[in-house]
């Protein structure tokens, strides 16, 4: 592991991450294209994105873009997706049968909620902001500190967390065994029937289906130049020019690097009231260089999922971009440019089940109940 010099706009800064992560990202993008190329001729999916990507003429330009298209996975068993969807909404998983995944990741509020710290079991607030489950399958690790390497592993943390499901797998299996609908469904779909592995697999398979395709930005990438307006195009140019894309890249506009918050100045002490959770990846690795290091979040739904950052301390996207300019790039960005970048970020959310995702009009009052 080496620290690594990153150059943007003539400024150089030592970034706390390994060279191998950077190489990994290169492979990630390369692997994405190889798999995209292999998969295009086989695809029979009729949706707009898929149809458009079949048009090879758009590919050469697209290949150079730091932000890539979102593509719906075509290899998910729809029966497992729908079983996983049921489980995601079922409070029986929780210790007191009163909490489901959807309690905190409401899909009608874009897979997240509007609270800085969601109250968990018995009203105890969670240490960090709730990220969206949409597009989370694209992240190379799960959680702000990246402590889960897969969606399946992430579910174990929820099951055992005292402020979340506060239970264990044998108890969940016992409860499920008394429900013939679940036992039948698992027997039909899995050769070994109802097991913890298969419950995790079903929920994770559902989560893999939560890809927000057909955004205006993706249509723009595919050559529909009028899909985003001049200001939004300018915003995308600025996002690349200022260096946002060095950290926020790939199809989820992030999610594939670990980075320190506060490369310039001290974000945490300027905010005040430091917490253990602020130490980020250090809490997992115990290595000094991992203090304040977080997995870079994907920005696909950022426009729809305030508040921002691991601490949920920032309410508006404008303010979040200003914090990024100051603490990640060490510069001031003029308001007009901030507005253009925000306009660009608003073109990134796409559709789920053929419906455009939108910012809910009303901030939902969280009851902690599904
Ligand atoms: C009580 C609220 C709550 C419940 C219930 C809950 N989550 Fe979460 N979820 C969170 C919070 C808070 C985080 C961020 C925790 C962290 O990063 O340390 C999170 C993180 C995640 C992530 C990681 C996303 C990313 O970008 O890193 C996924 C995926 C996820 N949850 C899925 C689920 C699933 C599946 C369930 C049900 C089995 C579930 N959650 C139940 C609050 C909740
Ligand atoms: C050096 C890497 C790096 C650069 C450059 C960078 N970011 Fe970030 N970004 C991060 C990290 C890490 C976080 C999470 C920080 C935290 O939660 O404490 C983040 C968080 C965000 C968030 C909040 C997302 C959420 O869901 O909470 C937004 C919005 C954002 N960045 C936009 C930008 C923009 C716009 C730029 C360019 C002006 C930029 N970033 C430049 C690493 C970077």
Task: Characterise the protein shown here.
This protein is mostly helical and 370 residues long. The protein has two domains: 4-69 and 215-349, Cytochrome Bc1 Complex, Chain D, domain 2; 78-208, Orthogonal Bundle (Cytochrome Bc1 Complex, Chain D, domain 2), CATH 1.10.760. It contains 16 helices and six strands. The chain has a two-stranded antiparallel ribbon with strand order 1-2. Strands 3-4 form a two-stranded antiparallel ribbon. It has a two-stranded antiparallel sheet with strand order 5-6. β1 and β2 form a beta hairpin. Residues 1-47 and 362-370 have low confidence and may be disordered. The site of one heme C has 27 residues, from α11, α12 and α15.
What are the defining features of this structure?
370 residues; mainly alpha; Cytochrome Bc1 Complex, Chain D, domain 2; 2 domains; two-stranded antiparallel sheet; 16 helices; 6 strands; 39% helix; disordered C terminus; binds heme C
């Amino acid at each position: 592991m080496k620290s690594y010099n990153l150059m943007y706009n003539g400024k150089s800064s030592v970034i706390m991450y390994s060279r191998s992560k950077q190489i990994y990202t290169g492979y990630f993008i390369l692997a994405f294209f190889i798999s995209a190329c292999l998969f295009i001729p086989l695809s029979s999916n009729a949706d707009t994105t898929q149809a458009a990507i079949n048009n090879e003429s758009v590919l050469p330009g697209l290949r150079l873009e730091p932000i890539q298209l979102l593509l719906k996975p075509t290899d998910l068993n729809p029966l497992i997706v729908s079983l996983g969807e049921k489980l995601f909404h079922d409070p029986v998983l929780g210790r007191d049968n009163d909490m489901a995944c959807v309690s905190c990741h409401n899909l009608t509020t874009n897979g997240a909620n509007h609270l800085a710290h969601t109250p968990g079991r018995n009203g105890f607030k969670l240490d960090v902001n709730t990220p969206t489950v949409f597009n989370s399958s694209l992240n190379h690790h799960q959680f702000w500190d990246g402590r889960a390497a897969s969606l399946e592993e992430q579910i174990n943390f929820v099951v055992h967390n005292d402020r979340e499901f506060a239970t264990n797998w044998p108890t969940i299996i016992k409860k499920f065994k008394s429900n013939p609908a679940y036992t039948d469904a698992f027997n039909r779909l899995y050769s070994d029937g109802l097991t913890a592995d298969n419950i995790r697999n079903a929920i994770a398979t559902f989560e893999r289906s939560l890809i927000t395709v057909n955004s205006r930005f993706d249509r723009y990438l595919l050559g529909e130049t009028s899909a985003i307006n001049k200001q939004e195009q300018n915003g995308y140019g600025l996002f690349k020019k200022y260096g946002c894309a060095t950290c926020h890249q790939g199809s989820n506009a992030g999610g594939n690097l670990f980075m320190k918050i506060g490369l310039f100045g001290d974000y945490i002490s300027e905010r005040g009231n430091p917490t253990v959770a602020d130490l980020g990846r250090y809490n997992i690795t115990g290595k000094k260089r991992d203090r304040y290091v977080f997995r870079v979040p994907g920005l696909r739904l950022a426009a729809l999922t305030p508040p921002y950052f691991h601490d949920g301390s920032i309410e508006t996207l404008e303010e979040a971009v200003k914090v990024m300019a100051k603490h990640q790039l060490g510069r001031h960005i003029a308001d007009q440019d901030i507005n253009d970048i925000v306009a660009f970020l608003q073109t990134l959310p796409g559709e789920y089940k053929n419906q455009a995702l939108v910012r809910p009009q009303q901030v939902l009052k969280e009851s902690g109940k599904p």
